[in-house]
Amino acid sequence: MPDPDRIIRLRTVLARTGLSRSTLYRKIAEGTFPTQLRISIHGAGWRESEIDRWVADPVGWRPQKEQGQG
């Protein structure tokens, strides 16, 4: 059984990517960075696997289609 994907928070994402907070949110709006997942009313995070994929290829990163779509 594969390990479940961890959810990481903003501080960790900023440290891993080297982006500023404003640049990160601009890239989300442009569609060139993974979107957040709502984890509570006031909390959000990112799938660690998506951030790892972005770090490996920031220029070529594109959102993956969800399973069962397309």
Descriptive account of the structure:
The chain is built from three helices and three strands. With 70 residues, the chain is an alpha+beta fold. It has one domain. It has a three-stranded antiparallel sheet. The model has no long low-confidence stretch (mean pLDDT 89).
Distance between the termini: 26 Å
Helicity, as a percent range: 25-40%
Shape, please?
Answer: globular
* DSSP, total strands: 3
Domain module tally? 1
Order of helices and strands: EHHEEH
Compute the number of helices: 3
Strand content: 5-15%
Spans of at least 5 consecutive residues with low confidence = none
Helix-strand category: alpha+beta
Largest sheet: 3 strands, antiparallel
Radius of gyration: 12 Å
Mean pLDDT figure: 89
Strand order within the widest beta sheet: 1-3-2
What would the keywords be for this entry?
70 residues, alpha+beta, three-stranded antiparallel β-sheet, 39% helix
Helices and strands in order:
Elements: E1 7-8, H1 10-17, H2 21-30, E2 37-38, E3 44-47, H3 48-56
Task: Provide a quick synopsis of the model.
The chain is built from three helices and three strands, in the order E-H-H-E-E-H. With 70 residues, it is α+β, with helices and mostly antiparallel strands.
